């Protein structure tokens, strides 16, 4: 082949110097060598037919990868920003083993089992690794294989700055790495999907087999962030380079108001018991925000209990002595912003949550993490009631209600009171304890230390979640709440366990899987969503809506929760009866509900060919509640554009006020391709330049020769 290339070069060169001819031969040969490294093209596909097709063959992109992006808070930056261009790939384990992390610039390939060590090393100010790492690609094993035994980016005491007691050194989460609020941003980091990881390993192994010498695979990572030069939330909001992180909470009360004419509403009782559950958690990789044990387990148990209690109220046919207000609280992973906003708004005497004013709330029951309850004798599960100071003694009837509900579970639930803790664990209840004298409890599956080894991590997924544990907790909560509502006089009424089990399993499938995921019937009947996997990231707040009860600016998950609570409030024995309710227009509201105490809920009829309105009027007291800091202000300038700001200073404001940076188009992106070294490419460039000069020289000689021949003829 080299003889053929040399002869070809001789014919084309037309008298070029032999050194240039040799350079051209080497250049053509090098292209053949590089082409030999490309993935094999099947005979069916044939050769690339265009430059774009060739680029796709050479360059590997990762469209499914989840990026770490830049977030800011009142104390600094967190997350990732920056770019890495043409940086060689190297296994993290090899880099550490060879030279302790020091060396030239690299993009590290990190196996999941090494991820906690890698991020802790990256976050260390004195780390030699941190100075040379330009990015990281995290590869995953199939079916969760290869995971570390624990990976928790949260602090050892999450949200300790909001604790209602002084022991901030207590370690609720001993495996916590404290990576969520780093104070400074990291280089670009991406988590690949399992399928992408399998293909990418071949490239990483090529580099390893070559001894990390050229030709080798390199990476281009782009996580440019417009707020990169701003130090904190105050600065980026002032420069309009970021937007607040925040979503909405959803609240509803039981029993629902009795539909009445517009001239008069149904009377309500004074006392309310507030039931809380968190929606979502924080995460270094926000696109993978799952929170199965930390959030979804408690939310599913509370939502299932809501439906069972509503059915029990309907069957009983007698008004309870206490109302129950349920609040599914959003944005809690970002400085408990949802519960802190809820408490602040309730402090306004004219404000109510699901019809309950703060002065009417006598007790708070929070359903915390309940998806990992430990097995006990005979297959029972152990749960713990964490009380605020004096709450158990002052509310003996509530304690008795939970004890009796545990007895009614026929040995499935065992209740314990924690010993040796400084107070309630990290929870939404801390916000209420700090701002009012309301007492309460947190139901959880742990005593002194959280059982979740993946708290605030994308690994807190369906593999870290026990449906049976959630079901038993839902049964316990529902039974206790019925007794609380009727003052202990439940007349021996039992909770519909078949309904509870069906709802827990259904909600778990919808919120923790991709198939059916959010396309499940449970979601699709009450909410429109094109998502497959539920996203628990609250998202950003672009503007302050004039009507915060409009569903148009809400996430798919929040709209589903609203529709779920609305359609279950009446406790219908057959949920399909909602289809027979008066129609209304959802979400436009053009055709409104005729009676006070009714709301227009999304409802998809299962009847084929149904052309009726897409909403139904149901009896419910359900509402959206903003879940971002009350210190945020929104003003509209003379130019018609709105701008967020902060009413206060860092030294005064306790809220963390998280924001997300804007980013330019085509960000974030991650791609990998093979290349030669700089010296080789420089030589190739010089050879090409010389060949170009030679070509013009040869063309000039040819032109003069042709002109001379024509003149002679």
Number of strands: 25
Low-confidence stretches: 1-15, 40-44, 261-268
Mean pLDDT: 87
The largest sheet, given as strand count, sense and whether it forms a barrel, is: 8 strands, mixed
Radius of gyration: 31 Å
Structural class: alpha/beta
How helical, in percent, are the residues?
25-40%
Helix tally equals 18
| Percentage of residues in DSSP E strands | 15-25%
Shape: elongated
| Euclidean distance between termini CA atoms | 41 Å
Folded structure, characterized:
There is one protein chain. This protein has 713 residues and is of the alpha/beta class. The protein contains 18 helices and 25 strands. The strands form 5 sheets. Strands 1-25-9-5-6-7-8-2 form an 8-stranded mixed sheet, with helices on both faces. 47% of the residues are buried. The model is unreliable at 1-15, 40-44 and 261-268 (pLDDT under 50).
